[in-house]
User: Fold these one by one.
Assistant:
Number 1:
Amino acid sequence: TKAITLKPDFAKAYQLRGSLLLESDEPSAALEDFNAVLKYTHGSGFLFASRGEALRLLGRYSEAIADFDESIRRDSSVYLPYLWRGFAHQSADNRPGAAADVTRVVCLEPERVTGYFHRGSCRRKMDRLPEAIHDLSKCLELDPEYLPALSERGIAYGLMEDRPNAIQDFTRLLEQHESGYIFNLRAMQHYFS
């Protein structure tokens, strides 16, 4: 903020402050700073991805997707714009678009747990249950402690009427996370027994 006060056209200072505001869950203020950067520069792929994320958090999905598109057009080798665009597609009820974007994340970063988790979650919501279970199992192979994947996989097993595996996942989830704040797991376990 001091740098901006001293030099009001210091685009990098706006971008850095915008990134901090985005991290601090202040997307409106972050968006103002990202827009200020574009007054002084043409912007970078990172700027468009960051501005897209601020727009997504504000519920402005079509604008967010346009910014993610621009970010990817500038540099298609970075996974984050694909992941965030996938979230925007998911929020806009475009599950095939979301699944395609998180598939790209998996291709770019095959060891990234969140790519498999989000693709598995999308596939579960699209009733592509065997594929969802495969992705969620890969996620748990990479990180056995990733509890959201354990829960999603348990739900997918339950939807496939594979009660033993559903109960096994929910039981393991209860054992690893007794407080149960993520889901009311005891109710789910009872439902599937």
Note: Residues 60 and 68 are 12 Å apart (CA to CA).
Number 2:
Amino acid sequence: PFGLFTVSPGWEWLESIAWSQELDVRGGRVRTVHRRRGDVTEITDTLLQLDRNLLVVHKSLRGMKVGSWIEFGYRLCPPRGMDLPEGLTVGDGGQDATGAWLDYRLDGVVAHRGRVAAWADQACAARWQGNQLRLRVTVPAGDSEVTFCLALADDLGNEMFYDHTGWAGRHRDHPMLAQAHAALHEQPVRR
């Protein structure tokens, strides 16, 4: 599936006075550090596991003077739109105290069924509505951490070239991609 995800903090009034960003290509992680007015530090680690179709966003907050919230959102939509394209329908979905999910069907040459699920590592106000999932977590004053996860799963239809081992497993031995895949993994990482 495709879509748009957002992480919106409730403390945008805390102006960022300095920030840095690190990319770990091999580990699939991006770390962003914001130093904010009032000696507040916000560290965001974003991890993408392509072979498991899993996106993880972990926030560490240090020195929050007042409590606030963080909202994680996902919208199932095409790259340049906000509504569902023709052939994509949302079926059932739901929410509980830790997350929300939606089921969809994509009708094309091959029919695909799938599920998008978002959850937090702590209690949250979760909402599923149409093609959107939203999770809001309360952040206390002081130091705290929260992790949001987004999982994308589908039945892969009946395409003969795919199996359930993830991207690397599907393409590791592909006659046209194996050499490029190996070459990319052998490249040294430079900073």
Note: The first helix runs from residue 166 to 171.
